[in-house]
Design a protein that fits this description.
With 67 residues, this protein is of the alpha+beta class. The protein has helices spanning 21-25, 44-65, and strands spanning 2-9, 15-18, 30-38. The chain has one domain. 40% of the residues lie in helices and 31% in strands. The chain has a 3-stranded antiparallel β-sheet.
Amino acid sequence: MRRVNYKVKNQFGETFFTTNYTVATQNDNRIVRTFLTEVDEKSPATKIWNAIHVRKIWDKMAESKGV
């Protein structure tokens, strides 16, 4: 999944980053740049399970090849 980010310049000339469109456009703020960032939605437990699962598959593949 990806998240929309905004680089915003406020009325005092200060620049800041936000993911909230309302904050980016409130007062006299001006959006300078819009960009996307990747967001990993997997829980830590899922990441661990995936790592263990991948290791098991690699071990089975190595075993079947006789390595």
